[in-house]
Amino acid sequence: DKNVKKLDISYETDSDKATAVIKNNVPISVDNPITITVTAEDGSIKDYTINLTYKALSNNINVKNLTIEKYDIDFDNNKQNYDVVVNQDTKSLNFNIELEDENAKYEIQDNNDLVNGSVIKIRVIAENLTETTYNFNIIKETTTVPKKKNNFFTILLANPSSSS
């Protein structure tokens, strides 16, 4: 890992009277191998070399699982844009996100004070800094006020005629 500056090296010599010296371990570099020089009691010297390479950083930006609490969404890593219809009083969404690579990370942007036309962005960043962004377009439900009905009715009173 490029963040490692020193290796913890432990060793054991065949003889208690031999000595060992470690070189190029602080800071480590792929350009300078670490050497362990062992000097025996009789003065003979043997060098051991540790060559370093950086591990390949992952470029995995895949989302294993993405859900939005209280909303159905059919998430697909190959689709970048989604429309989410929410009610008028929704101010933010609760995302549950699981990435395929534990070394990747994600950021949720613009997920507060949502209005019609807001776009929530989820940015996924791989270990090697490859990235992608998923956009969630907010559509606020329009509520129509029902027309007030005139609640009246007519009562017709008739005077029945009496016939005898």
Radius of gyration: 36 Å
| C-alpha termini separation | 114 Å
- SSE string, helices as H and strands as E: EEEEEEEEE
Helix proportion of residues, in percent?
A: under 10%
Average pLDDT reading: 89
Given the helix and strand composition, which structural class is it?
mainly beta
How many DSSP H or I helices? 0
| Contiguous runs where pLDDT drops below 50 for at least 5 residues | none
Could you give the order of strands across the largest sheet? 5-9-8-7
**Based on DSSP secondary structure assignment, what is the total number of beta strands?**
9
Polypeptide structure, described:
- The protein has 164 residues and is mainly β.
- The radius of gyration is 36 Å and the shape is rod-shaped.
- It has strands at residues 19-23, 34-39, 45-50, 63-68, 81-86, 95-99, 105-109, 119-125, 131-140.
- The protein is built from no helices and 9 strands.
What's the SSE blueprint?
Elements: E1 19-23, E2 34-39, E3 45-50, E4 63-68, E5 81-86, E6 95-99, E7 105-109, E8 119-125, E9 131-140
Parallel strand pairs: 5-9
Antiparallel strand pairs: 1-2, 2-3, 4-6, 7-8, 8-9
